[in-house]
Design brief:
With 439 residues, this protein is mainly alpha-helical. The protein is built from 19 helices and no strands. It is globular and about 60 Å long. Its main location: membrane.
Length: 439
């Protein structure tokens, strides 16, 4: 009996790892194509600008935003925004990913929103797409002695990790996101670690054939200096600064959702027509305030800017990101957060004694610290910024800032972004566990 049990376990593990590999391949293909299309939206905009008047360009861009909203409203309301919380909610049985609706809405809705110049990123859609692909492949697991919940959670986690890995060419960060962000709903063992690593690394490898193997925020070795240890005490205060600004960002998101819930209940289509046209017009005036900002970050790290200029960028990105994310169109919040975090890091470099010469370094650390304060995943923040920039010299100061930011957010009792969003989704769309209990 023991030999038979061992044999069954080996077969189960083999099949589960094969499904994990399939998740990685599919997420790599879907996520790679999604990234390729969103990376080349400027080509399409240039084509439109060459053949249409400014009015025509504004209408075309506004139509993109409006299409994203209509797709979400009519076919998959839960696909609006990021979607990370939907994956987490499905893993604890509170939500359910309807992959047949989510995949096309997330894919085409995300592209349409970025075409419209909305301040959203690609990582939320790719993580949600990854979770949906994992949910789809759950149907191939039949007759197992393991619970369907364990199998589903494994494949959802593989999809989520692979989704982040594809978005930023960052496989290790993809694995860490699952460990930190989804730990309450996931059983960790050697098989699960192996499956998530396989999905994340394979998806990254596959996507590189489509979008290339380049850093999202290329930073040369000559642009970064080792910060002397005498300044490390300043990083503790930097972590506190990140927690305060992170809490302000989360409050802005909360207020933004309240405003849009009210407006969508009263005048939904008029609201989105106004939003869509406004962002399209803003793109014509100053495109630096539109889109995710990932393509601007490499130059932004080394640009010499005054406090008023940085304040303008932070406020503009904060307002634009809040409106975009809370409006209900498809898009993630990671990428816009990184631009705000980099700008806050440069602000701290200007106001902290002796750190003005380390502006680029503090911008990178600021991205990690702000990400940690908002999401609540310090290890992911440290490794993600290292993989994005290709620079690992700042691991220790980044670790200090992220650790302090995470501790301060917990001390203040501020809930991480996706925990709050999940509670909101359950309130609006319903609790799947209660629906099952009634049935």
């Amino acid at each position: 009996m023991e030999l038979q049990s061992h044999s069954e376990t080996v077969k189960e593990t083999r099949l589960l790892l094969v499904l994990s590999l399939c998740v990685g391949i599919l997420v790599g293909i879907v996520g790679g194509v999604y990234n390729y299309l969103t990376n080349h939206l400027d080509v399409f905009r240039d084509f439109v600008e060459a053949h249409l008047s400014i009015t025509g360009v504004v209408i075309a861009m506004a139509l993109g935003t409006f299409i994203s909203y209509v797709l979400v409203k009519k076919y998959a309301p839960e696909a609006g925004g990021s979607g990370v919380q939907e994956v987490e909610g499905t893993m604890i049985g509170k939500r359910k990913i309807k992959w047949k609706q989510v995949v096309p809405v997330k894919f085409f809705g995300g592209i349409a929103a970025q075409l419209g110049g909305m301040v959203v990123g690609r990582e939320g859609p790719t993580i949600h797409l990854g979770g949906a692909i994992g949910e789809m492949l759950t149907g191939f697991w039949k007759g197992s002695k393991y619970s369907e919940v364990d199998i589903r959670n494994h494949l959802l986690a593989c999809g989520a990790g692979a989704g982040l890995a594809v978005a930023f060419n960052a496989p290790i960060a993809g694995v860490l996101l699952v460990i930190e962000e989804m730990r309450p709903s996931f059983k960790f063992n050697f098989r699960s670690y192996t499956g998530i690593m396989m999905a994340s690394f394979v998806s990254t490898w596959i996507a590189q054939f489509i979008v290339g193997d380049t850093l999202d925020i290329p930073v040369g070795a000559d642009q970064i200096s080792v910060i002397p240890q005498v300044h490390y005490l300043s990083f503790v205060l930097f972590g506190v600064f990140m927690s305060l600004t992170g809490a302000a960002f989360l409050y802005a998101i909360k207020v933004g959702y309240s405003v849009f819930d009210f407006l969508k209940a009263k005048v939904p289509y008029i609201t989105f027509i106004v939003v869509a046209i406004s962002f399209a017009l803003l793109f014509q005036i100053n495109p630096n305030y539109n889109s995710s900002g990932m393509d601007l970050l490499a130059n932004h790290l080394n640009d010499a800017q005054s406090l008023p200029e940085l304040a303008s960028l932070i406020i503009g990105r904060l307002v634009g990101g809040t409106i975009s994310f809370c409006s209900g169109v498809v898009g993630g919040v990671f990428s816009p957060m990184l631009f705000i975090g980099a700008s806050l890091g440069k602000v701290y470099a200007l106001i902290a004694p002796g750190l003005h010469i380390y502006s680029a370094e503090l911008a990178i650390i600021g991205m990690a610290g702000f990400f940690t304060a908002v999401v609540g995943a310090p290890l992911t923040g440290v490794i993600l910024m290292s993989e994005l920039t290709g620079q690992y010299q700042l691991l220790l100061p980044m670790g200090i800032v992220c650790m302090v930011a995470a501790m301060m957010m917990r001390f203040f009792g501020v809930k991480p972004l996706y925990e709050s969003l999940l509670k909101r989704d359950i309130r609006i769309f319903g609790d799947e566990s209660l629906k099952k209990a009634k049935n």
